[in-house]
Amino acid sequence: MSSPVKQTLKWAQKLLPACDGDLNHAKRQLVWLKEKIISDRPGGAIDDKLSEQEQTQLEKYINQRVFDHKPLQYILGTQPFCDLDIVTRPPILIPRWETEEWTYKVIQLMHQHLDKSRPLRILDICTGSGCIALALAKHLPKDSAQIIGLDISNKAISLANHNLNIHKLSIRNTVEFREKDVFNLDLKEPVDMIVSNPPYITHDEYNSLDPDVKEWEDPRALVADEQGTRIHKRIIQVAKHCRPYNNDLPRLIMEVGGTHQIKPLTEEMQINGLKDIEVWKDLADKDRVIVAH
Ligand SMILES: C[S@@+](CC[C@H](N)C(=O)[O-])C[C@H]1O[C@@H](n2cnc3c(N)ncnc32)[C@H](O)[C@@H]1O
């Protein structure tokens, strides 16, 4: 029988292939997996010694990570996003740090420029788990915004509604989710601003994605035609009908896949009368968001 320390090291070593061979990374993942097992205990006991049955469960999670390439967030069941624990469920896209970063920036921008004349009506196109819509609803001043999240996938809308239900007590603005294809969208209600993280991976890039992504997340959430810009171009068509709220807040804020998409999207925005086009970089210094008034 091995000591607890030896056993922990054995598990971490087993996790190595799912952690790019980085032992510290593997140890951190192991801690999160153990925490999940402890927090799932029916009686709520917090003793960190795992029973035999719990050890078997831990081995099962490790095997899912290593052999099934199951993303950690699908095993843990949540991903933190702008101070919300967003429930994650395959095949709905797991919220990414890049998206969280620009969502905080949008929140800051809105805090600076919201006026009290009327609530800002925001459309979150391609809402997925609902993470962006819910983060805005949580962090914007009470009753300053009305947010609608749209997605083509009924599984995404069902998860977004589940997240809304879980977080409804901490949310200060109205949020509604609707199943809708953006190519079939006819804006009947007034909208002031569109935010979106559309699929933007090219077909070539998709082929070289890690199995954790390719085998688990919906390809519809990842890939788009026209070098990854097809959905953005459609969103631009929709955004030209947004009414400007004031001179300081943009009408459109969209995540992009990189520098190669900036020129075609800038051209499309100009053709459709959007102006003051700006590109925001992410923490890794990559072109990440395109913004227009
Ligand atoms: C990159 S994911 C973004 C999810 C979420 N907003 C986030 O940032 O984690 C893109 C989402 O777009 C949705 N989608 C793809 N094509 C669409 C379309 N034609 N109309 C509406 N939604 C679409 C997918 O179902 C997916 O949930």
TrEMBL record:
- CDD domains annotated for this entry? AdoMet_MTases
Give every Methyltransferase small domain span: 108-205
**Which UniProt keywords are listed?**
Methyltransferase, S-adenosyl-L-methionine, Transferase
Q: Give the catalysed reaction(s), semicolon-separated.
A: L-glutaminyl-[peptide chain release factor] + S-adenosyl-L-methionine = N(5)-methyl-L-glutaminyl-[peptide chain release factor] + S-adenosyl-L-homocysteine + H(+)
**Which is an annotated GO molecular function term of this record?**
nucleic acid binding
Q: Does the keyword DNA repair apply?
A: no
EC number(s) per entry: 2.1.1.297
Source superkingdom? Eukaryota
Q: Name one GO cellular component term.
A: mitochondrion
Q: Does the keyword Methyltransferase apply?
A: yes
One GO term under biological process is: methylation
Q: What PROSITE patterns does the record tag this protein with?
A: N6_MTASE (PS00092)
Q: What is this protein called?
A: peptide chain release factor N(5)-glutamine methyltransferase
